Amino acid sequence: MVAIPNEHLQLILDDAREHMEKSLAHLRTELAALRAGRATPAMLEDVRVEYYGTMTPLMQLASITAPQPDLLIVQPWDRSALGAIERAIINANLGLNPSNDGNIIRIPIPPLSEERRKELVRAARIRAEEARVAIRNIRRHAKDHIKKAKEEEHLPEDLCHAAEEELQKLTDTYIEKVNQLLERKEAEIMEV
User: Fold this and answer.
1) What kind and span of H or E run contains 119?
2) Which residue, 74, 108, 142, sits at the end of a domain?
3) Which of 74, 92, 108 marks a domain boundary?
4) What is the pLDDT of residue 36?
5) Does residue 3 belong to any structural domain of this protein?
6) Does the reported pTM lie above 0.90?
7) How many CB atoms lie within 10 A of CB 93?
8) Which end of the chain is more exposed for a tag (fewer CB within 10 A), N or C?
9) For the domain that residue 102 is a member of, what is the CATH number?
């Protein structure tokens, strides 16, 4: 990335980059939670358990491990929460069937059907498009700031044009990163 000689314009571009990076990181998190055939603790990231009257993230109540590609093990730090954790996993509608042995909860991960794989690919595409829209919105917002700075500080036309070109390059780079993430996730989901 080329440095823009105006400090204010450079700050606008740096801010845009930071927000685009956050959008990309959010997409990574969203895609990690999509099940792709093998068990990962991220599959249970959104599960909330009613624990002493408070809805608590499962990750705060137990350690979650994937000792095998088709099995998750949930080991609560407080064994009295086992029943509530098991109910929360069932109620999360993840298509999982936990079994509680009194100490730990074993969750066998069934293989994905072709139909379910296609649903997951659609969900991944929707999340990727949301990330692209967020990145374009960041670009639009930054472009508005560049125009405002141009008017308020009476900046030269060519300087603002250079800043807008840099902004577009930045946007293209992050859109491409989103596309690459989506491509990898689709391949992972469709891999049998």
Assistant:
1) helix 114-153
2) 108
3) 108
4) 65
5) no
6) no
7) 7
8) C
9) 3.30.1360.40
Burial string for 133-169 (b: 16+ CB within 10 Å, else e) reads: ebbeebbeebbebbeebbeeeebeeebbebbbebbee
Using the structure block, give the residue that is written with the tokens 């670009």.
139
Specify the pairing of strand 48-51 against strand 71-76. unpaired
Measure Cα distances from 17 to 53, 144, 177 in Å: 41, 15, 13
Is residue 143 within 8 A of residue 9, CB to CB? The reply is no
> Token pair for residue 155?
């900046």
Low-confidence ranges of the chain (pLDDT < 70): 1-3, 35-37, 192
Structural domain for 89, as ranges: 41-108
Q: What pLDDT sits at residue 69?
A: 82
